[in-house]
Amino acid sequence: MALLPLALLFLTSSVLVGVQVAQPKYRFGWWIAVAGAFLAWVGVWLWQFGLPLTLEAQIWGMAGLLAEPLILVVDRMNWPYALALTTVGLAILLTDVVREDLPMPFSWAGALVLIGLGLLAVMADTPLVLLLVWAAVDLTDLMVQLLTIDDPNGVRRVILGFAARLAGIWMVIWAGVLSLGRGVPLDLSAPLPEVQVYLVLAAGLRLGVLPLHLGFSAESALRRGFGTALRLVVATSSLAVVSRLTGSGEELSYTPLLLVLVAMAGIYGGWNWLRASDALNGRPFWLIGWAALAVAAALRNNPVGATSWAAALTLAGATLSLSFPGRNRFQQVITALGLWGLSGLPFSPTASGWEGAAVALWARGISGAMLVLAQALLLLGFMRKMLWPSPDARERLTAQSDGLQRIYRSGIALPVIVLALLGWVGWQGALHVGVWWLGLTVAVLFAVLFWLMPHWRWLNPIRAHSIQSGSQVMLLDAFYRLLGQGYSLVGRLIRSFTTLLEGEGGMLWVLLFFIWFLSLFSARLP
What pLDDT digit, counting tens, does each position of 337-353 carry? Predict the structure, then answer.
């Protein structure tokens, strides 16, 4: 039963590719894709009747860090991740009916494969499965972006983002090495306290939170559809690890410093998200802002709260990325439902987000105040991006038939409806009152900022804003440029040295270095 949604996603993707290759003019590819995604979504709901579910496969001949068997686990902690991912996959297909380039069987097949890989990542209970899935998703992201970006600056940013996520993979490997050095194999469900910092850094590097950086380019053709699946799978698969970081309940010595750094990332993400021209240009900042709240919850020994923020990021982010903004009644209802789901108020799906050890102490500190402000900025940006009319949105939608418009609206509404349901059923964070006064504080701050928007120009979005221009004002951007220049300098030195040795005088230089080394050793002999 645990493998049913995975099998449906990968099988549907294979059928779509096979049919497209055999019959390029086949007209029912969308129906096949929707049927497979819907059945996978239903299969994840059916997991509720058998939780927890465990699947184990032993790999023969492996030792050391990878000696543990491959284990997939579904419980009430990672089930919201799985539900969010399959909901995103179904919503992408439902909203694609209004796309001008319909049909897109290869794009649909790729999105379904990405959702399947995301499910494997959130179900992974051993490092090997997690690392393999991360590597597959990162390589897919790298290849697609390099094929769709022509600007050298955009290519450089994509490569730096890939390097950051690769460093996150190495952080998990190093955590496994340290854990084995203590005589205990790395357990993602209950890692040793001394290796948790490396898992925090691994997730932070992949999410752009620790250290603060942008790994995505706005100039990519990855926008809606496949691009939405790719971005949200990267974020969700990383946050699934964050939710497991602090199951011991111990207060770690580095927690205060990390909370301050995470809060700074949250402010940066929330502010730039509010100022972004639209949801797609601001999507990297949306990911950074909510990921900061999730990481902060995990650092406060609140894995349930981290899961709630992650589900909010994925589901509300899908609605933002897939919808065409407007001020009609439907869009207003969806916006109100999404704001409630993201609010942290009692019985909302994010009510558990502010819970944690000694919450009354840290909430009075600078990090708590910054995180509250970050959430208010994210909420304000969500409302603006959903209701700020797009010039061509109305024409594009009215050109479609009533039936296609209903399908599109069902795809927009589905993620926020599922987000609202998570506040009531299905997992450990349902029916939580939470820290009600913090949720109320965020709501009041949101209302104050909303009232100030017509009066303060700097609270309004910049229409010409792009990720590149926003990243230029980031304080750490100069640091990353310096690293890039240092890398280029080392590369030029190595190439020059290689050319020197391979030239006509290469053998003379080798002999000269050999004599020099002999002179050094001979000087040390008695």
Answer: 999 999 999 999 999 99
